């Protein structure tokens, strides 16, 4: 058998000719179509109910209550403003010994371990920036931006934090939570949060059975073309459309 019988070649006139392989393309495609037509039915895909999530687990309200202006604290059952006490005495430049008040405060903010890095020493009802500018508690994001510039810019663009009301800022209903409505300013790192149940998709399998695409193929929801053990059951019925 010559090489010219197996691969395309050109004759003396420059006309492209083909060998006997080209004659088998048509029958080969027909044979492939016949094999696909007689392929076994698809295996049943398990469809289970999505895990129910109660409304109390989806709370859109802020995680924390931001301090008002002027900030206040309840001591002995009475509401006090910061300067009600702090104007009566001058605080030391550095904290000395355990706190007599505000004992609930646990300072765990990395290298920021000094109260007067954020609080103004003379006016406790204001926050102080590194350039000496004093701002109210409602502008706390400007204070946080001094050290967390990248996160602050992400927050400005809507990539960090939480947006309520509307995604469209032009509607006037949009409200973006500020830093202290999510993070404790004295210990901003989040504790571990248990995630809500994942959506039930073919790739994930059944969340209740723990079968998330097992490689054996017996209960793998991705193996749609594999016949089920003991025969090929009928296709599951399509879920009904929900009304609006």
Summary keywords:
elongated; two-stranded antiparallel ribbon; single chain; disordered N terminus; two-stranded antiparallel sheet; 244 residues; little secondary structure
In brief:
By secondary structure, the chain is largely without helices or strands.
Mind describing the biggest β-sheet?
2 strands, antiparallel
Percent range for helical residues?
Answer: 10-25%
Secondary structure: number of strands: 8
The general outline is: elongated
How are the strands of the biggest sheet laid out side by side?
Answer: 1-2
Continuous helix count: 4
Content-based structural category: little secondary structure
Query: What percentage of the residues does DSSP assign to strands (E)?
Result: 5-15%
Unreliable stretches covering 5 or more consecutive residues: 1-7, 206-217, 222-228, 231-244
* Helix-strand topology string: EEHEEHEEHHEE
Q: What is the CA–CA distance across the termini?
A: 70 Å
Mean model confidence by pLDDT: 76
What Rg, in angstroms, do the CA atoms define? 34 Å
Description:
It is a single chain. The chain is mostly loops. It is built from 4 helices and 8 strands; from the N terminus they run ββαββαββααββ. It starts with 8 loop residues before the first strand and ends in a 68-residue tail after the last strand.
